[in-house]
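3.2 Worked example (two chains)
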Amino acid sequence: MVENEFRLDDYHLVEAGLTGSGHKHYIGPRYICRFCGRDRSTATFKHKAHAIPEFLGNHALILNSECDDCNSHFGSTIEPHLEKYTRPFRALNGITNKARKTPKHRDEQIELLHMDRHTRNLTIKLRNDDSVKMDEDGKSVSWSMSREPFIPSLAHKALCKIAVSIASEHHLPLFEPTINWLNPRSEAGLRVVPTLVVETTTPGTQYRGCAYRLYLRNTNTFPHCLFWIAFGSYSLLTFVPTQLDRNPGVKLTSEIPFVPDQRSPELIEEFGPQTHEERDLSPDTLTTFPHRVQVHFEKMEQHGPPTS
C-alpha cells in the first residue's frame, strides 16, 4: 500500500505507555477477571498477570483483572505463537525475557544469534559463509531470518489480548467481541480476512523495554481500533475488533496505515528510512515468515573455525 493513502488522522490516541523494569504499575480492579467475568467466589487471583508478556520486555506492568485460569490459558495457547513470531527480532534487539535473559535465535542459515544485554555486542555464528551479505564500506550486514513455525492467527489473537489488557475500564465495553473471543469459557469465534499486521523497523531507535499505543475512531469504517507495540527498533501495528465493527454498513476488510516516522531528519539521514512489511496473520496452520534483516555496525570482528 502507499504510505500516505491511509493515515492516522482519524484516530484518537487513548492509551500509551513505555514499560520495562522498575516499580510495578497496576491496571484494573482486583479480583474481577475482564476476560471470563469471574470474581474470587469462583476463581483465584494468586499469580501476577503481566498486561504485556514478559518476553516482550515488560516486567513492571501488571493486570489486576486477570484470573489464574485465564492467565494459564493464554500462556499455554496463544502467547507461545506470539513468542515465536517475535523471537528473531527480540534476539536481534536484546530484549530480556521472563528470566531477564536475552533470547537466542537459530534457523537454517544462522547457527546462533545472540546479543549480550550488558555489552550490547551482537554475536552471529553462521552455518555457511554464504548466509550473509556484507557491505564493509557501508558497515552493514544483511541476511534472511526465518521464524520457528507458529500459527499466525494465534499470534494475532495474543496481540489483541494485550490490547484489551492495557485498555482502560471505560473502554472495555467497546471490546466485547474481542473479550468474548478471548474468553476461554466461551465458544465465540471471530475472523477477519485478511488479518493484517504491519511490521516496521526504525533504524537508530532502541526501546529497551516495550512501548505501546491504542488508537480508536468512530467513522463507521473498519478498523475502528489500532494497536501498536514496539520493542528495540521493531514494531507491530494491527487492528483489534470492536463493537463499532458491527454497525450497519461496515465492511470487514482491513486496511492498516503506517505509523509516521517520528525521528528527526538528522537521524533519518544518519540511520536510513524505516522499512515496512505487511503480513496476513489469518492462517490457522503452522507457518513461518522469512524476513530480510540489515544491521549496521561500528566495529565487527570475524572469527573462522577453530584451528587444530
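3.2.1 Second chain
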Amino acid sequence: MPLINTTYQPSFLFKSTHVNTMFKTLFYSNKILYKRSRITTEDDDFLDIDFSTVGSDTIVIALHGLEGSSTSKYIVSLVHFLNSKKIDVAAVNFRGCSGEDNKQIYSYNSGKTDDLNTIIYYILNNFNYKNIILVGYSMGGNITLKYLGETKILPSQIKGAITISVPVDLEGSSNALSHWQNKIYIQRFLISLIKKSLVKQKKHPNSSLNTLAIKSAKNFIDFDNAVTAPLFGYKDAHDYWAQCSSKQFLQTINVPTLLINALDDTFLSESCYPFKEAALNKQLFFETPKYGGHVGFNSSIIKKDILWSENRILEFINQLIS
C-alpha cells in the first residue's frame, strides 16, 4: 500500500479538530438544484438519487455519512466543486435519508452494499458514462470500501474510489464516539436515529422493535443492539460491527482507491488506521494528515480556501481517468 505524504497544511484555527469538523456544517452556504431519480429496489422499496450534471463523460457517485443526505454540506460542497470542473455527480440518499421514509422497516446500515450495487447498475443501464468514480464519506466510505473489497468482478467503468474519514473498524469507532469529547456528536446522531426508529415502530407495530430499548439508547452499542442487529439479522451489535467493518476487505480491493483519515479525527480509534492490513495492497493509497477532524479538512478562512479535500479528490480523479 503506497503511503501518501499529505499536502494538507491548515491555518492555526483548523488545527482544532472540533472547529475543523463543524466548520462546513455551520458556515458553508452553497446550494445545488438537483434532478431526482427514484430507483425501485428488488425488495419493493426505493432509493432517491440526486443528479447534478454538466454533460461530462465522468460521473462521481457520492455517498454520505451516518444520517446525512445529498444536502449535507460536505456533499453539496463536493458537488458544487466537481460541477465547476465539468464532472457530473450522482448524490446518493440512503434509504430513509431523502426526506421521505422508505417502505421497509429496515433502511440502511454501515455495511449494506447491495443498494450501492443497485445504484451503480441503474447508472450503467440508463446513462453512457465512460468513467464512474465512487466517493464515500465516513459511513459512506465504509460502504464503498466494503463493496470494492467484496465484489469479485466490478464493471469496467468503475475506475476507482476516494474515501474520507472512514471508520474501517466499526467497533473501534463506536467506542471512540462514546468518549466525553464526542458527546455532542453522538447525541446528534442518536436524536435522529431514535426519532426515525420510533416512526418505524409505529408503522410496523408487529415488528420485534422494543420502544423502551430504542428510547433508552445512550450510545451506538445500545442503538445497534435495539435496532440495527434485529432488523438486519445480526446476533447483536458486536456481530454487526464485525461483519460490516471494511477493514477486513481492504486487501482484496483491486481498483485504485484513496483513503484519507486525519490523525486527529476523534470519531476514529487507533484500529481505524489500517497501516498493517492494507500494506499488502498496491491499489490502496493511504493518506493520514496530522489535522483534518472528521470530514473537515478546511484550510484557511482568510484565503476562503475550505476545499482541500475537494481539490485532493479532483487530483485523484484526474489520475484515475487520465
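3.3 Remarks
The chain has a mean pLDDT of 95.
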